[in-house]
Specification:
CATH architecture: Up-down Bundle
Helix content: over 70%
CATH class: Mainly Alpha
CATH topology: Growth Hormone, Chain: A
Order of helices and strands: HHHHHHHHHHHHHHHHH
Number of domains: 1
Strand content: under 5%
CATH superfamily: MFS general substrate transporter like domains
Shape: globular
Structural class: mainly alpha
């Protein structure tokens, strides 16, 4: 039976779908706003992503321990509503001709905090909503939302920025958060309050999550690979729009359309990940998809004016496919390996390690691009991402066909 016939999951999926699309619009529109409207430098553009993701470094681990103590759905609703209000302030300020880069930074910092709380609560909420054997199809459907939003949003953001302006495009993201909040409120399933520890100790609970991840041979390797990937992916992402506008001389609509073509791989990945996992084994599929991410970002670094713009499309196509395959398998693996009492802390630890590297990567991208140039920085980012797969190849993952539930068992090694 299709997972979308599960009425409460269907509401969660509907909330996620348009919200993901709105976020993708902002992801494309915010750097274009900085470049085309506010005349920001390369380093200033890279700081936008740093502001949006820095909260993972400060709050990521605390959010996980917190999520294990509370009902998650109210957190999701409130976070959506507050993000809608904050992002709506950008088009309002632009309309009255008072928008500054300082305001954009000031909006992105609290939006980043709310995103941390939302994402950790969202990952902890799904195992409370679905049975364990339905987590993989559930994560696949949510990943499909990422894919659809990536494809549509990448193209639509560039076109909308050229037609109606970057500020109004960001306003559409604010509306998408309102949509999400309404659907989340409509979920009927009661969420039981988690069992409270007899002697609450936030530091001890955070340490338990860290120990669980870094003492588990598979989770440790996944965490370190994710950290490296996010570091260099953020470095490339922070400067890519600047390079395409100022180095390759593309218009916003062209950037959007090329991104939309390339990200078609993400939609394909959402449809075939379960089949690939059953046929080749989830461990092998995960290893190959992680390697493909590094190859994809190295290919993107070959982008240049003229026909060499095609390398951007090829690299984005491969990256979209491999990122979604890797995401689905990683999240499902984490949820199956981890006991319910540690879900929030495990999720927060994995997100902290990965997303905590993102603000550092964005800052690194801006610094390297200022010192060595945009194109050289893209090459360094691509090769760095590829090198990060060593954590997986020197882990038990390379000897496995399927990932076992719980600790690695030698009977699973082939």
């Amino acid at each position: 039976m299709s997972i979308l016939r599960h009425p409460n999951f269907r509401r969660l999926w509907a909330a996620d779908l348009l919200s993901q699309l709105g976020s993708r619009l902002s992801m494309g529109a915010i750097p274009l706003l900085a470049v085309l409207v506010l005349n920001a430098s390369t380093l200033q553009v890279s700081l936008l992503r740093t502001c949006e993701t820095a909260a993972w470094l400060v709050l990521g681990l605390f959010a996980g321990a917190w999520a294990d103590r509370i009902r998650c759905r109210p957190v999701l609703v409130v976070a959506d509503l507050l993000r809608a209000v904050l992002l709506a302030s950008i088009p309002v300020a632009w309309w009255f001709d008072v928008l500054t880069l300082t305001q954009v930074y000031a909006v992105l910092v609290p939006v980043g905090v709310l995103t941390v709380l939302f994402d950790v609560a969202h990952n902890s909420y799904l195992p409370r909503l679905l049975e364990r054997d339905r987590l993989l199809p559930g994560n696949a459907k949510l990943a499909a939302n990422h894919s659809i939003a990536a494809v549509i949003g990448a193209g639509a953001s560039g076109v909308l920025v050229q037609w109606v302006g970057a500020a109004l495009t960001i306003g559409l993201d604010a509306l998408s958060f309102l949509w999400s909040a309404l659907w989340l409120r409509s979920i009927k399933a009661p969420e039981a309050r988690p069992v409270q520890p007899e002697r609450p100790n936030l530091r001890r609970e955070i340490a338990e999550g860290l120990r669980y991840v870094f003492r588990h041979p598979l989770l440790r390797a996944l965490a370190l690979n994710t950290m490296t990937t996010m570091l260099f992916q953020a470095a490339a992402g922070a400067i890519m729009v600047v390079y395409l506008v100022r180095g390759v001389h593309l218009q916003p609509a062209t950037i959007g359309i090329l991104s939309m073509i390339g990200l078609g791989g993400a939609i394909v990945a959402s449809a075939v990940t379960e089949k690939l996992s059953r046929r080749y084994g989830d461990a092998r599929t995960l290893l190959l998809s992680a390697t493909g991410i590094g190859v994809a970002f190295t290919i993107q670094a070959m982008t240049a004016p003229g026909w060499q713009v095609s390398w951007f499309v090829v690299g984005t196509l491969l990256a979209g496919f491999c990122i979604i395959v890797s995401y689905i398998l990683q999240v499902s693996t984490q949820q199956q390996l981890c006991p319910p009492a540690l879900q929030g802390r495990m999720s927060a630890t994995m997100s902290f390690v990965g997303w905590g590297a993102a603000p550092l990567g964005s800052l690194l991208g801006g610094i390297l691009a200022t010192a060595f140039g945009l194109h050289t920085t893209l090459w360094l980012a691509g090769l760095g991402t590829l090198a990060g797969t060593a954590f997986l190849y020197f882990s038990p993952l390379r000897r496995l066909r399927t990932i076992p539930a719980g600790d690695v068992d030698q009977s699973e090694v082939i």
